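Retry 2 of 3 after timeout on previous attempt. Resubmitting structure tokens to design endpoint.
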């Protein structure tokens, strides 16, 4: 009897670890995907052309961190800044080839694909960043976003850089006539070209990463950009005059290669979409804060002559640019212009 009891106890002791092992399923443990090779993880290469300390640079890093954390390391967003991997003129082709999966070009650079998206370039089209955000949510704004799909581009988010200011080395710009005969660097956009040529200036298109060199060589007298772009590339060190004109919006559509996006699992798409929504809110606040801080820094350095346009000046400038609005309407109809928040009357 004792022997039978001994065998029974032994069997029982051997079975316990097996029962425990079977009852603990692998999903009870968070999987550490960081142990996986690059081939087993989902790698998203994100290339952009600005510095790390700009709103876009910081938002790209924040997005990468959050996605890594939320997917337990399964999704790895590799961020390449400063045009180090692909420059302005190269990143779109790299995206369509599938060499990278994510870019965030300035909207002006998308006008080559969807020309009517140049509404964002019209001077004084928007009087605040809130108005830009509001416009993108309208039917007209969403139509523009949808039209990118025909070019295999999926716009998942809108990030701000802010409003552009004008700098040059020749003379202070107090009135729009002061821009006459200046050679100004622009991003590739029909409307931006007209913005300067209609004032008797000479617009020249250059990649963002070439601006510093071109200013240094004197091939252009001036340029327009947001304050964080102007300081992060040290552009202001080569310029004598800066006008706070807030004349045009500079923002980005964060773009996936659409085929790549469609190939993703639904749960991955959901994680990326939700994270982008959160980062977008964060980026908008950050842009406001960084632009204020940067202006303060420029005021304090005393290294460039600053001029602020008054509200009246800006209204006068806006009026001066009316022919550009007519040009836009003639080419792309009324639909988009009419949806601009500044033309909506409160009911
Ligand atoms: C520029 O070319 O001036 C900007 O598009 C750079 C950027 O991406 O903010």
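Retry 2 succeeded. Sequence:
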């Amino acid at each position: 009897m004792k022997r039978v009891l001994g065998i029974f106890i032994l069997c029982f002791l051997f079975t316990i670890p097996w029962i425990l092992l079977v009852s603990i399923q692998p999903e009870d443990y968070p999987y550490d995907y960081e142990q996986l090779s690059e081939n087993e993880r989902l790698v998203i290469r994100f290339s952009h052309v600005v510095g790390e300390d700009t709103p876009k640079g910081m938002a790209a890093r924040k997005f990468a961190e959050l996605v890594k954390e939320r997917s337990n390391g399964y999704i790895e967003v590799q961020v390449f800044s400063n045009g180090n991997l692909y420059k302005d003129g190269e990143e779109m082709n790299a995206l369509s080839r599938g060499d990278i999966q994510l870019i965030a070009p300035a909207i002006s650079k998308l006008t080559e694909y969807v020309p009517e998206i140049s509404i964002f370039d019209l001077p004084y089209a928007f009087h605040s960043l809130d108005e830009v955000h509001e416009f993108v949510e309208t039917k007209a704004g969403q139509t523009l976003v949808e039209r990118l799909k025909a070019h295999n581009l999926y716009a998942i988010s809108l990030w701000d850089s802010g409003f552009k200011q004008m700098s040059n080395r020749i003379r202070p710009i107090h009135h729009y006539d002061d821009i006459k005969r200046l050679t100004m660097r622009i991003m590739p956009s029909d409307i931006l070209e007209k913005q300067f040529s209609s004032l008797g200036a000479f617009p020249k298109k250059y990649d963002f990463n070439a601006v510093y060199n071109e200013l240094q060589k004197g091939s252009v007298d001036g340029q327009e950009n947001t304050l964080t772009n102007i300081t992060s590339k040290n552009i202001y060190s080569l310029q004598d005059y800066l006008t706070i004109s807030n004349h045009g919006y500079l923002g980005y559509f964060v773009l996936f290669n659409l085929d790549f996006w469609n190939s993703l699992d639904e749960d991955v798409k959901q994680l990326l979409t939700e994270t982008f929504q959160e980062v977008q809110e964060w980026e908008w606040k950050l842009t406001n804060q960084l632009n204020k801080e940067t202006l303060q820094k420029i005021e304090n350095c005393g290294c460039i002559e600053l001029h602020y346009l008054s509200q009246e000046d800006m209204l006068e400038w806006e009026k001066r640019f009316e022919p550009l609005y007519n040009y836009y309407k003639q080419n792309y109809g009324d639909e988009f212009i009419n949806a601009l928040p500044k033309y909506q009357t409160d009911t």
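Attempt log closed. The chain is about 45% helix and 20% strand.
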